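New to this. Help decode both lines:
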Amino acid sequence: MSQPTPDLAPPLDEATRARGRRLAITSHPAGMTFWVANTEHLPTLLLVALGASEFQIGLQGAFLPGLQLLQLPTMRLIARIRKRTILMLGQIGALLGGLPLLFLDTLTATQEEATVRVVVLAAFAAIAAGLNFGNTVWFPMLRNYVEADRIGHFFAWIRTGWHVALIVYFVSAQQWLRTHPGDFAPLFIAAWWIGLLRMALIARMPERSELTEGQIRMREAVGLLRENPRLRRYLAGVTLNAAIRTSTLPFVIVMMRREIGIDDQKILITTLCLYGGALLALVPMGRLTDRIGPAPVFRMTAVGMAVLLASLSFVDGNSSADYAILLCFFAGFSALNAGFGLADTRVLFELAPAEAPARTLVICNVVTNGLRALAPLVTGAALQALLAEGDGLQIYHGLFLTMAGLQLLTFVPLRGFARNQG
């Protein structure tokens, strides 16, 4: 396998790295608000309101991870184009892709529901494509801002910022839907303007250049998987965890809305629990990951998430007790998944060489997200077939118990990642 070109740029000085950390932390709340509003729970609620099938809901959930395949050809551009330029172009593409959502009210008033669903799905796909194009360089840029022994601490703070922003956004969304039931258009309009704000914030982010006379070849990145068994074990564990999350959370919402009859306002409260739980867990989990290493964090979070997934099988109605289980699930699952994610990022950054991290980071993102993109598609198709002939709640309970068993397995390939062994 050909090796990275030796004439790489020198490391960033400490003042530049500090500026990079500040800009990353201040820009990410706007970036993630735009990201989440157009890729996760709000699109699911909109599609349910538009009468989308389980397969269509699964398809929407597959856009963001599946379109990370775009990062492989984009990775080749890093040798020719500055990473900051790629980041900006991706944000511009996502904003252009989201333009139809600004006219959602007009679409729903003038077009048939089936047509609106197609337009909305196309917009979500275009947004996911733009985000993935730009996100190719996000982790490679951050890799050169942070010290190896403070990876968990840094990502705890950067993720704390955007969780606060998402809580503010979804509190506002819940209040809007309380007084304007079913009117999703202003929520997407607000998210679009927040995405535009992000462009101004990332325009000055520094980078350690990976521009070279040669090329960054895809086969070099793929070759890393053949040569590094630790990288393969890492990918096995984190890919399974990501697939479980992607194929479970949207269908918890579908079950709540269609099988139990919980309204949009209460569902958005569970979304607040999702981000509130992570917010409370991020800083202590970041410190814990840096102190004891990733493996113990992987173990405790995998077991905890499995227990919470199994608890969903006890939800069988719209009572206060059922709703309490759901609130506890979203808050607890998010908190534990935040810890898992911090341990994941620490291992990933330890496996990626600081002088040329793009190959390792991009191939890991593509493999993880390319495979997890299949999970919501398969889950949605299976649910659609089963729900046509069986009891809805029992089928959903079976799904969640299956996911609980798989969640326990996520720790098995990750148990060797003890402290300072990346």
Remarks:
- The mean pLDDT is 88.
